[in-house]
Amino acid sequence: MAATTNQTTQPKQKEPFNLVKWAKSRKGQRSIIIVAFMFIPLLLLFTFTYLPFGEMFRFSFYRMKYIGPKKFVGLDNYIQVFKRDDCFGALKLSLYYIGGALLQLVLALYLATMLSFKVKGGNIFKGFMFFPYLISGIAIGFIFKFFYTRGFVLDTVLQWCGFELDNLPYWLRDQRINNISLVATSVWRYFGQNMVLFIGAIMSVDADLYEAADLDGANKFHQFIYIILPSIKTIVTLNVILSITGSLSAFEPPYVITNGGAGTGTYFVIMNEIAHVSQKVGLASAMAIVLLMIIFAATILQKLFFKYVFKDAEDENKNAGIKREKQLARYRARKGLK
Prior knowledge:
Layout: H1 2-9, H2 19-24, H3 26-59, E1 62-63, E2 71-72, H4 76-83, H5 94-115, H6 122-134, H7 137-148, H8 153-160, H9 178-203, H10 207-215, H11 220-231, H12 233-248, H13 252-258, H14 267-276, H15 281-309, H16 311-319, H17 321-335
């Protein structure tokens, strides 16, 4: 009896791990698929993003061309970026594009607020405004190059309005206005995209909030300030960050329309010329790293700015939670809703 008890209480030996058997099992195949789907995108990301960026960062410390010997110069390329007028001075043109981007966001938000409600022909208007974003940037450049040419589309329309051709400026050659003309091209292209993003965010706001605000006597402006804007702050912040970072790296309009001439060469246009025409690869790499740092710093500052701007709105929303529920309950009671 004791021998039988000892035999039954002996622990069962654990089978050794069989890799082939595990790989054929459902659990093993699922794990292999998960790892494969993780590994392949990471490998592609490393190969086509991080590895080239690392090489570019290394090149920024050398004086070199695409083919030939290279000489280590340390931080000399970074110093040259700030000393050369055609390098760091080109960043001043980004102020034009930043101003145009902010104007574009204000107009997009204004029209998106109106089109979020029932407006006759609103869907057609949305389609017309969004269509330029679908066109290639190169194609838009050629369109506006013809549009701004002396005596062509814009000048013809202005002559119909009573202006004399001799009194009109050269839209692409006059340095007082040519950068503004190029900024208008970017505004026309990206305006519809921002408007559609704002419309999607505004339409996600609870409609009962507008009804409750009407009961309290709030007008449309108050509804925009206290309901719409705090509710879409994430999209507003995202659009501002994308617009300003895009303004710092503007390339297609000045490159296609003016080829960077007449004082329209932005930072990217100058960097392209230094890299591919002058073949100063080290200096162009340093310019790219400097621009990356500027964009990174601008993004952080923007996030801190919007965090401060919407701080009062967040505190007000937290403190007004109970009041809002009471307003909605009163509204539902008047409407006979549950």
